């Protein structure tokens, strides 16, 4: 079995040592460091008192909410195929904590740092039959040691962007053992399958199954009731819902909205910051005042629709997109990466985003289908105002774009079921028996 190198372990230990210093400048990272101090303890308690050794255990790991959405639909279908499974779910980002609690897993927690001692104590207690990584957040120590213990290792929704740093030295060399330990991988596309093989996964262990996120977003939209209170914020007016925004997005959106209101005073804007911290919300309010917009109404205080609604809590974006007639998706003006464009597409909304979308396969699919628009790096404010006004002026054209966006989502549905079948086959395959001491014996 492949094992991680001394260089990899040294790099992880260095990162752990430096994390508190870096966290001093990042509230988000600082929150993750605090939460991870006791990471794994709740899982150990669950394994001690509630784990049923007669039932198979599947350990899902997804870094954040985006990866979690891809894992969610696969997990749900696996439950249908194997209702006897016990599901453990871990995440890395603090933003995924609330999401993880809603998945219905038997146990959830933060993933400890990828060090041998942390990994060994969890594998020893949980004894998973299968470890599943979502998207690309594979941790080599966990992957290699799980494989050595006799567990199968899988990746679902595997995608590797052409510009991924994992494909370059030294990351590729450090991470390769983890990918070589993979038993089976479900890639999103043929191109992703090729890049996954470059990372170290054996080509014969890779199958192109599609993206389970399509299933997840379609189901989430389907679950929103027609009498959902959030939908009222867009009724009766041309409303743009701007989701997962960062300050660079908000500078463009608010300025464009201020220009649009001169000719279209009936237009409304809903701003949903990716991180609705008090500081971020205050910045949005200050920016709105600077460009002459009315005072934003915060969602927590909103009784009815307002010209400018500012969302001050998390977990409501999927429903709020349904209140819009068009959508803006954040992340395309910074370095964090474009956020998911599939949620608004599943609501049959045309989508607009910033110029840095090239690492988003979903954005490319929408652009190819003429269901989305990308703003230029220069002149973005004017371009957004013009696009928004076109959607207001040409309702039939806007609705046609929205139908094409939904068709992209519908075409992608089905990957979750295929991925769950792959995982079920790994659980059903004979695996080595594992002992409490961490040894294994091959089945006859």
Keywords summarizing the entry:
444 residues, alpha/beta, Rossmann fold, 7-stranded parallel β-sheet, 18 helices, 16 strands, 45% helix, globular, disordered C terminus
Q: Specify the biggest β-sheet.
A: 7 strands, parallel
The count of domains is 2
Query: What CATH architecture label of the largest domain applies?
Result: 3-Layer(aba) Sandwich
> Helical segment tally?
18
Q: What structural class results from the helix and strand content?
A: alpha/beta
What's the CATH H-level homologous superfamily of the largest domain? 3-Deoxy-D-manno-octulosonic-acid transferase, N-terminal domain
Q: Roughly what fraction of the amino acids lie in strands?
A: 5-15%
Query: In angstroms, what is the radius of gyration?
Result: 23 Å
Uncertain runs: 435-444
Q: Mean of the pLDDT scores? A: 91
Strand order of the largest sheet: 3-2-1-4-5-6-7
Terminus-to-terminus distance = 20 Å
Helical amount among residues, as a percent range? Answer: 40-55%
Globally, the shape reads globular
Query: What name is given to the CATH topology of the largest domain?
Result: Rossmann fold
């Amino acid at each position: 079995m492949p094992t991680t190198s001394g260089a990899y372990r040294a790099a992880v230990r260095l990162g752990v040592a430096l994390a508190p210093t870096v966290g001093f400048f990042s509230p988000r990272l600082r929150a993750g460091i605090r939460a991870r101090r006791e990471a794994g303890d709740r899982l150990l308690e669950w394994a001690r008192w509630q784990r049923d050794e007669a039932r198979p255990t599947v350990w899902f790991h997804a870094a954040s909410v985006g990866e979690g959405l891809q894992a969610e639909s696969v997990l749900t279908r696996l439950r249908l195929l194997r209702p006897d499974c016990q599901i453990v779910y871990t995440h890395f980002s603090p933003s995924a904590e609330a999401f993880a609690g809603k998945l219905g897993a038997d146990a959830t927690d933060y993933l400890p740092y990828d060090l041998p001692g942390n990994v060994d104590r969890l594998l020893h207690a949980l004894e998973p039959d299968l470890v599943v990584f979502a998207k690309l957040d594979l941790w080599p120590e966990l992957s290699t040691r799980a494989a050595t213990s006799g567990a199968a290792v899988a990746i679902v929704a595997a995608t590797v962007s052409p510009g991924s740093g994992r494909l370059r030295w030294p990351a590729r060399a450090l991470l390769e053992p983890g990918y070589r330990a993979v038993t089976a991988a479900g890639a999103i596309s043929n191109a992703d399958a090729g890049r996954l093989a470059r990372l170290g996964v054996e080509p014969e262990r890779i199958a192109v199954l599609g993206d389970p996120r399509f299933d997840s977003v379609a189901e989430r939209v389907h679950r929103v009731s027609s009498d959902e209170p959030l939908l009222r914020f867009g009724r009766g007016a041309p409303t743009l819902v701007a989701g997962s925004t960062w300050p660079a997005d908000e500078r463009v959106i608010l300025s464009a909205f201020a220009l649009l209101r001169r000719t279209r005073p009936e237009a409304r804007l809903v701003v949903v910051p990716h991180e609705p911290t008090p500081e971020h919300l205050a910045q949005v309010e200050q920016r709105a005042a600077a460009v002459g917009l009315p005072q934003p109404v915060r969602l927590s205080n909103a009784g009815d629709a307002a010209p400018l609604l500012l969302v001050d809590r998390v977990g409501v974006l999927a429903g709020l997109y349904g209140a819009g007639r068009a959508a803006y998706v954040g992340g395309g003006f910074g370095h964090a990466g474009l956020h998911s464009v599939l949620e608004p597409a599943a609501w049959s909304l045309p989508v607009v985003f910033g110029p840095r979308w090239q690492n988003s396969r979903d954005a490319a699919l929408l652009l190819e289908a003429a269901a989305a628009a990308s703003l230029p790096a220069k002149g973005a404010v004017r371009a957004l105002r013009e696009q928004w006004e076109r959607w207001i002026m040409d309702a039939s054209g806007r609705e046609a774009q929205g139908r094409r966006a939904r068709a992209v989502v519908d075409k992608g549905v089905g990957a979750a079921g295929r991925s769950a079948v792959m995982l079920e086959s790994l659980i059903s395959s004979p695996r080595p028996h594992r002992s409490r001491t961490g040894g294994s014996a091959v089945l006859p």
